[in-house]
Structures are given as C-alpha cells and as structure tokens.
Amino acid sequence: MQEFALKYGCNPNQKPARIFMADGSDLPVEILNGRPGYINFLDAFNSWQLVKELKENTGMVAASSFKHVSPTSAAVGKKLSEELKKSCFVDDVEGLDDSPLACAYARARGTDRMSSFGDWIALSDECDEVTARLIAREVSDGIIAPAYTAKALEILKGKRKGGYNIVKIDKDYIPAEIERKQVFGVTFEQGRNNFKIDRSLLENIVTKNRELPPEKARDLIIALITLKYTQSNSVCFAVDGQAIGVGAGQQSRIHCTRLSAQKADLWHLRMHEKVLSLQFAEGVGRPEKNNIIDLYLSDEAEEVLAEGEWQKNFAVRPAPFTREEKAEYLAGIKGVCLGSDAFFPFSDNIERAAKSGVSYVAEPGGSVRDDLVIRAADAHDMVMCFTGMRLFHH
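The chain above was modelled as a monomer; its predicted structure follows.
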C-alpha cells in the first residue's frame, strides 16, 4: 500500500488528507481494521517509536497509552501488586499475571485513566489474547503493534461495532535519516532524533549522593524515553517500571513539574486504603468511577459526597479524605524518579519534586543556575544525573 486516504486532517475542514511515502515506496503499516485518522496516525507512529525503544533499552515488553500526540503513560511488563491491580481496575482480568504485555498495558492505561479515555495504544510485541481482552473493555480509538494472534485480532475487531482501528507495523522498518514537514507552506528539514538513551547517559552524577540502583536507573531511562516522544516542555515521573506522571506541553518548566507531580500524587493516592475500599453504587461504570475518584481526591470532593449526590455514586457514603490525611500519606513516598527534557532553570523544580517523593533526577544540565539546582538536590539527598542531552519534541 503506497498511500492511505484519511477522512480528514486534524479537523473536519482540513481536506483532503492522506498518508504516503514521498519516495513512492510502500507504507510500513497495514490497516487490519477500521479507518484511522490523521491524529490517530500521529499517535500511532510516535507511540510505536516509544515502545520500540523501551523494549530495546530495557529488554522488557512495553506498552504506551497516547492522547493528542503525547503519552499519558508508558510501562514495561512487570506484574502488578494486588493494590495496583485494584487501582487500575484490572483485579478481575483472568490470566493477567501470565501476560507481561497485558501487565504493561494495564499499568500504562491505569496511570492516568482520565487522560487515557479514548486513547491510542502501542505494544512492542505481538498482541495476545489477554491484552486484547483488557483493551476490549476500555474506551479506545485504536492500536498499533507488530503482530496480533488470531484470537486477539478477533476480539479487537469486535470493538466499536466492528470499526476499531487496528494497525500492524513492520517491526524492521527504519525511516530515512532526514525528516521533513511543512508549516504555513514552508518546508522544515532536520535529522531524525536517533539519540540513544541507555545506562551510559546516567554516568555524570553531580550530587553528593551517587548511589543509583539498577532499578532506579531503569526507571530514569523509562522517564527519558517517554519524554523523547512527549510534546515539549515536559517532565516525567517514573517508578516501578512505568511513567506515573507526564506533564506535557507547558511553556514553563515549573508548570511541567507541578503538573507531572500532581498526576504522580494522584497515582499514589489511588492506592490508599480509603480509595481502594470505596463502595460504588450499582450500575456505576469504570469511566464514571474514574471521574468520581478524581473528584473524591480533589478539593471539590463535596461534589460527590454531598447529601443527595453521594447516593448516586456510592452504596455507602465514604468518609472525606482530608487534605491533612493526603499530605501525611504522600509524605511517606520516597524513591520516585524524575526526568526532564531540558535543564531546570531554578531550584523550585527540585523543591516541588521533593514534595512528591522524588529521590532520583535526570536532566540535561547547562543552566547558569546549575549550582543552585545541585545544592537543592543535595539538601534533599537526591541523586541527580546531568545527561547533557535535550529531548525537545514537536
């Protein structure tokens, strides 16, 4: 297939639209089902690169959940704890522990379920039946993977009344070294970002604390690879083999850090006993539960707890989760990893990260205030690596 006609571009008024190879060669993808759109393919190609690199650099299968050309999360195939399974709404998925790929997607989808609603999925390896069954019950736009088992393909083709977008990509496809795009009729050209992110990137440790355990190095690598395919400016929090907070597309570095920290805090709070023990009213679906939990954990909790409202949401009215209780719980979180796609210009980023349990940091360095940033990291006994490489993506 040399080209694929799209329904329209980013918006319905942007016609005609298509994807094609400028050199006349065949596209590296097959559309096995559905009719993916312009934004779908932007998500597909970015997310595929992300999981492919995660697999290459960690040796573990990987999955990502994408929305609007940025990942909501990415994860490798580690088994989930019982608390995490319940937090991600996958404690009832039969055979989950036997499928590393399903574990990876369960983590990625469960990280920020509000943002993942209607996501695009990328898998590093052949989609198996367990992963397909998990995907089948979520609201999703489509998926890209190098292969699908016959059973997985059958399950996925049943989504969205048979219109679910299923894309198969040539896992051996290597794009040209030079990439181009047009903006306002002007052609931009640059070399592809083929920069390799691996353990060697973390060798320049600039803090007094230089102890970087292998699993923390892995999580820093996951954060950095995730950032490589996230709209800049961006900061990523990671722990236990997955991104737990992605702050994408902010003009200010501190706003990136605050946003990703807030998402990471919510990820942790969702595993608190008060949240795991919530008894929802009969008939409340998973998407509604996400919204209810999000409000329950916010400063607007009365919207779901007020008399006349809680009965719509819960079988039993839960006790409020006070700001003090949340702060006490989060104060016990340590060992979180943080990656930044550009240097921290001020130490306020480190101070905010510390409040969310960050103990390990990877950032390019190169600010005129690097000394102040390092001093702040030392004050919190963090390990901080200067990678020397910016990871902007647009």
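The longest strand covers residues 70-76.
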